[in-house]
Amino acid sequence: MSKKVYTCFCTDVIHEGHLNIIREAEKLGDVTVGVLTDSEMIRYNRFPLKTTEERVEMCREIPGVKSVYIQNTIMYDQVVKELNPDYIVHGDNWSDESMKAIKRNILELLNKYGGKLVEIPYTYSPEVEKTDRQTRQKLAMPELRRARLKKLMRLVPIVKVCEVHSGLTGLIVEKTVVADGEAIDQFEAMWISSLCDSTDKGKPDIELVDLTSRFRTINDVMEVTTKPIIFDGDTGGLTEHFVYTVRSLERMGVSAIIIEDKTGLKKNSLFGTEVQQTQDSIENFCEKISAGKKAQLSDDFMIIARIESLILEQGMEDALKRAHAYVEAGADGIMIHSRRKEPDEILLFCDSFRETDKETPIVVVPSSFNTVTEKELSDHGVNIVIYANQLLRAAYPAMENAAKSILLHHRAHEIDRSLMSIKEIITLIDEF
Ligand code: SPV
Ligand code: MG
């Protein structure tokens, strides 16, 4: 009887590297190719350009493939249990942490019954590299990037978004992947925070940094990343201006703008009632939302309305009334904000809102109520969680510490052990 051989592909394009794996696998027995599901591709690798079904079809057509299996998780427990393969064939590119975790998982499972892992030298060729580069470039195209936020909401239980304010922070959010036991994970989207964008420019978060400059930040991020972007649009400004902002962002490939229902001189919400802040009237804000929706040209751009009632201590009733009014006016999502330490009022809002509205996406920013988990938020109906300022808050103390150490010691030797090496910094950014 032929031996059972299994190999898993998470790709949109079959290139010579994959064909080589199949050729080698065929020598061992009957080949089943695994196709990783869309949601798992997103966590482990990147957003797929083809659906799971299309990728199944693509693999079925590869000469030498006997059958195709849909692999639901990047770890191999289920597939090994169901197929009991004699061999698992895999490229030998186990360099990063996530790949190492997968290798450990495969070996552990196969060792239990004497199955074998067969490693095939990874194909590094100009053609393979070109295919990879082209796939990434496609993901960065404005039309594709813009549409991806809505798709993500259908594919993952909660979309995890992290703040970025430069090309470098964009790269961190684009590339950081963690392996934690059974799970591999990464952020799915990016938030261009007004607080961090302003702070990085040494300016207060009061709508002082003009849109030309904010768009420049978006462009810096977009040039080096592929993940979808949510733009913090502050109050959205005058309705007459807001419509142009919507058009510009949409054209650039931004997926969503969040505007908050405040008027006059905007201050950061986390000040709450410590500073003078004025909430806009429901009527005015609804007009702004409707005008924005009329201005947009595509179906996939989203205008998300942010409610400041809890921040400004106007009560839950007011928050809910506004939420429903904003949805009625055309908002594609609701962001509810709070500066309490506990998540209770946010969760209560979500539960109450979901009693009558099961569909409209809810966005939250747990900066103060940071003990709440993604699972809890998702269980209460939240669709998008934004980690709005953590990268910048991590960077500032580290940089200040380096500056102090140099000044105190009159040399850079003492701080060096806390820094990334010179080799690392000069090779951090790949050349084309
Ligand atoms: C931002 O990141 O700029 C936000 C979220 O608007 S908050 O700072 O909490 O207001
Ligand atoms: Mg802001």
Model description:
The protein is an alpha/beta fold and 432 residues long. The protein folds into three domains: 4-128, Rossmann fold, CATH 3.40.50; 140-386, Phosphoenolpyruvate-binding domains (TIM Barrel), CATH 3.20.20.60; 394-428, no CATH class. The protein is built from 18 helices and 17 strands. It has helices at 16-26, 38-44, 52-60, 77-83, 97-111, 126-140, 142-155, 167-175, 194-200, 211-224, 239-252, 282-295, 316-328, 344-356, 374-379, 390-409, 413-416, 422-427; strands at 4-9, 30-36, 67-71, 87-91, 116-120, 159-163, 178-180, 183-185, 189-192, 229-232, 256-260, 262-263, 278-279, 302-307, 333-336, 362-364, 384-387. The strands form four sheets. Strands 6-9-10-11-14-15-16-17 form an eight-stranded parallel barrel, surrounded by nine helices. Helix 11 links the parallel strand 10 and strand 11. Helix 11 (239-252) packs parallel to helix 12 (282-295). It is globular. The mean pLDDT is 95. Magnesium ion is lined by residues 193-195, 205, 232, 234.
Total beta-strand segments:
17
Our estimate of the beta-strand percent is: 15-25%
Q: What is the name of the CATH class of the largest domain?
A: Alpha Beta
CATH-defined superfamily of the largest domain? Phosphoenolpyruvate-binding domains
Compute the number of structural domains.
3
Low-confidence stretches: none
Mean pLDDT: 95
Question: Could you say which small molecules are bound to this protein?
Answer: sulfopyruvate, magnesium ion
Class by SSE composition: alpha/beta
Secondary structure: helix percent: 40-55%
Q: Architecture of the largest domain, according to CATH? A: Alpha-Beta Barrel
- What name does CATH use for the topology of the largest domain? TIM Barrel
